Amino acid sequence: MKVEIIVIGDELLIGQVIDTNSAWMAVELNKQGWDVTRVTTISDEAHDIEEAISSAFSRVDIVLMTGGLGPTSDDVTKPVLCRYFGGKMIFDQTVYEQNLRYFANRGLAMNESTRRQAEVPDVCTVISNPVGTAPIMWFEHQNKILVAMPGVPHEMRVAMKGDVLQRLREHVGDNDVVMHRTLMVFRNTESGLSERLTQFESTLPSSIKLAYLPMPGVVRLRLTARGNDSSIIQKILDEKAAILHEILGKDIFCDEDTTLAGALGQLLQQRGLTLATAESCTGGNIAHEITAVAGSSQYFKGAVVAYSNEVKHNVLGVSDELLLQHGAVSRPVVECMSEALLHVMGVDCAIATSGIAGPGGGTADKPVGTVWMAVRCGNKLAVECGHFAGSRSYIIERATQRSIMMLIDLLIEC
To answer: Considering the entire predicted model, what is its pTM?
Structure first.
């Protein structure tokens, strides 16, 4: 089944809000074996909404829409849908009573604007929204379906997982299954990896596709298979993944689709090792990435955000002489910071960073984007100086990911 997504909101078009809805929806739809063929982002304008619907229906039979269902004057989706599908607005008592309970449970009084949330087109099937006030609306005409959902991500996700996906499955009767297997590879460029896997790709049946998904320092290999028997598909994917392991060996450092921090966590758990970080220019971002992984408390002990020289000296024991001679952004300083962590935190592994994220602070010798990174595991040490170009946030992110990758590399080689 082919599906299109329409995302509505002026705030998306001016970059004030990032569209996370369509990405999440695409993942969930793909799990059902359905293909998202297009995502369209449009403004809160009646003409644009009508035009987007007509255009989508010229290509597919299922359209999922988010946004524009709030109680304020700039939310025009509901009346546009009513007009488009040839209905009239009616007051839905069930929606009204549900919204009354929603407000009462929060100790709030309903105003007139929110009361109007209970007005819905008489040509739609109303689906309850248990976590918000905007009803989900299912429109069906000439065997084409449009489902309008709130733009608030949490509300949309509850609706999709609660009723929408089940109703779509019942409607289309599509039993196809799509399954993926992702391997994370380093020490290879995308083009170089492609050359190494030319023979492998030539042996793949038409039901299996191999995709190359590059990110800085890493290429994710995604095997995708489609069929109607999940056990057979899983067996085939396992067999093909095993062949990739034979070809690429230790260049595969993780056997699932996760973040670099997630891959690092797996390695630490497998080896029974613990970790702490000492961060200057990254400001705790490495610790944030690591603790965003569920279960990280099993191996991550803590962090020192040593943003000033005083903290580097007083907490991590970096000598004033070392700081004066080499400067905070230097190899000797990050080496000292990482070594101190092993003792201060009582851990097996450490990551330390010190650099200049900008936009100011750079010099001729140490321009903005210069970041020294040190990683340790016991008596094993790796140090690197990165020169990252871009905005402050980009430099911090690149230094974060590179530092994590350095420790992954060190652990694999230990």
So the answer is: 0.82
